[in-house]
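Researcher: Please generate the 3D structure of the following complex. Treat every line as part of one assembly.
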Amino acid sequence: MDALEKKSHRYCVIMCGGVGSRFWPFSRSNRPKQFLDFFGTGRSLLQLTYDRMLPITDPERIILVTNSAYYDIIREQLPEVKEENILLEPARRNTAPCVCWAAHHILALDPEASIVTLPSDHLILRESEFHSVILKGLEFVEGGDRLLTIGLKPTSPHTGYGYIQRGEPVGDAGDIMKVKSFTEKPNLEMAKVFLSTGEFFWNSGMFMWRADSILRAFDKYDPETATIFDAGEGAFGTPGEMVFIDKAFPNAPSISIDYAIMEKADNVYVETADLGWSDLGTWNALYDCSPKTPERNVTQNCKVMAHDCEGTLFAASPDKIVVAAGLKDYIVADRGNALLIYPLAEEQKIRQVVNEVLARFGEDYV
Amino acid sequence: MDALEKKSHRYCVIMCGGVGSRFWPFSRSNRPKQFLDFFGTGRSLLQLTYDRMLPITDPERIILVTNSAYYDIIREQLPEVKEENILLEPARRNTAPCVCWAAHHILALDPEASIVTLPSDHLILRESEFHSVILKGLEFVEGGDRLLTIGLKPTSPHTGYGYIQRGEPVGDAGDIMKVKSFTEKPNLEMAKVFLSTGEFFWNSGMFMWRADSILRAFDKYDPETATIFDAGEGAFGTPGEMVFIDKAFPNAPSISIDYAIMEKADNVYVETADLGWSDLGTWNALYDCSPKTPERNVTQNCKVMAHDCEGTLFAASPDKIVVAAGLKDYIVADRGNALLIYPLAEEQKIRQVVNEVLARFGEDYV
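Model: Done. Output below.
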């Protein structure tokens, strides 16, 4: 197979159905994080993810899997994506059902397909390194029955990420290895040990595999999900696909691809990389990866006049001015009908705050 | 003269041309404090001032003196006021030129006129007491060549107000007295002494006099201003009035009525009153006169979820929710394209902040 032919079998699945309240009031239930233009670049995280894949695969082989609630916003943000490339999940499940459906869908279109599966709401600063890593990873999974995850070189003992422990290298390049173990989010002490060993990498949630490989893994390691989707054999890639999905998908268990497959399979590999990556999972993560003033303040898009403020993240719309004094280590986030002024150190409470806002003031505010 | 005839000679001048940046971002250069509905009652402070005078005098004898910049907003807020009752100052001066012009204007309409002159941006909670005080004061000034100011019973040693020291009572009612002295804003120690003597009252900026009395006082105590407006004799109350004013008014000195007349004249009296009054001159003043939660927080119109906040004033539009944690003694004021988060104790800096905003970001923000 020459390079062009290989490219013609390469698909990308962008998972963009997630909801998330941790960035409230910037993210809203009808406009979660992946649809936001966090950095004022003019492109949302989803759009950036899409753009980033264009050198790897043709647009007609980029599949978006999302919740039906986000159909309109996806049409608005990515009007160039063909209708048939948007897979609308009829119910909120976790990543395993999403991955399984997408693999069936793609396999029906191309039995030789390999797939890059990506979250839609992460930050990647080193784009050309990303391209090299993906291309190398695709070559690797196309060469056999292999499940590959990208492990990111950790830059701090972060307790908000899962870690992957690398095992023996495969081949001679040295940056693809067998996975020795997956670990849940560690405590700080453990994370420091992880970092010191040099064996642990952040679990990025980016995966590569052949369509047939991942479906074989479902059959073996997550037969419950496999059985549900196997029943659609013959419907995938046909007009009957959505009829089947609307009926079957809600029966799928809510389970992550890590838990369903990656932590169990024996053909799992990790490709290590340094991508300038953040999952932007929290206001703190956004704060960490943003440029700072000498007083360690961060300004997201808006105009700010800060007197005697330190370590504070200001986020508002570009036409807004925020004047603040005396804030230390705060989030100030203003968007539409909601304003949040909260200590950065207590951001884990924001999820609960949003639930309280919903209960007391209704869904217009979340 | 019977009551009805008296009423037909009673005029009210509402001074509503003031600009003021201390309530930024609620007050804006194109919508100063008097045009704001601070308490969410559906009526602005100006509208409330107008409404409050209706039992005292007929609407056709309520004159608004304002800056030409505010013509549109006055038309919007008080459409029932006749065109000829809106006096548009062609330049920003202080209160003396405003008072002098209005007196000439009214005298030309009615040589028997008495005038209540009022600021447009104060809070008065005890409305029926206000009516009694005004009616009694009008009777007093209509009976002679007297200049009367209302002195408010002080409820605290406030350092933001001027004080009036009362002298000998006039007549037997006991609440109208000669003025012994006017004082500038005192320091706290002095204000406490003032309070303890029982002789000092807050200078409200509300005045009553006959039109001819105040003009006689101008001739005697502020001949510079008097000369400028005396030149318009014959034009007042005619179509030529505005032609004259547009030419003459800008030549008037910028001087307050207190400084020009009240502190110098020997026929100045004070009527003491307890009106539930605040000049709402500062965020702190607004805070002080607003109902509070057990944590001493104040909510102006908007929805608030405050965790671990104390002594904080939240002001935003009614459809906005503010979620805040850990703020002690702050102003949080959000309006349009500007958000202010500032320690209440430092509010005297807000004026300077607004100047800085203007210099750095332009007039759209002030």
